[in-house]
Fold this protein.
Amino acid sequence: MTNNNTQMVMCHGSGVTRAIGITLDSVLNQILQFMLANPYEVVTMEFNEFDGNATVMAKIIHDKVLQYFTLPSGQQLMFSRKSLEEPWPTLRDLILANQRLMIFMSDLYWALEPKPEWANQKDTWKQDGFAYTSLDTQPAQLNSTYFDYCTKGPPTDGSFIKWQQIDINLSILEEDIVNSVKQGKIPQLCIGPLAVQTNSDMLDSLADFCYSKWPYWFRVRVNDYWEGNLFKVVNRFNDMNVARVKAGDSITPY
């Protein structure tokens, strides 16, 4: 928070290693422009950790979401669920309804009053991969943990099935480490062998295997620093997915 609790800025981390980014307004405006220019894209937005007064921040986020993602016609770009029993939409449903923004919130969700229908409490619906891989320090350990977890499959006792998420750090550039040290920051990186030896082929096989076991996937998140450019990574994976769908692969959001 800045300017007497009137402006929010993006951040990552906490304490002395916290990285401060640009304003929330700047980020939301970029997302809005992207959505307007790309009417067939669906965006997932997640408000995760926070540093400040939860009640004040939740109110600002609520107001900013309405400000940026309510069209002049009055239509909201956010997808709203009337009840917890309402089924999740497909990507096609979201695109046809032009409600292409899905919003998840962490603890800030509980500070929202009243709670809007477009806000989803992320921990209610999603299982983060870090929750069960946080102690892994070697590639073999990471692979084993994911495959063992996916082998178990969803619960069979009728309990709620959460959306699944795979989190993988592939590698990091030496230049990034040096720059962090020069700036007096603690480099945000995973342990060396885990970073160097884990690769995209493992991710592909893991995603295919886990998809066959779990029916609901939220996302597969990859931090691939070797490529140095996030958009290159995204484009590569998008091209691969498009090729698979065109080839008749069953892994398709439709």
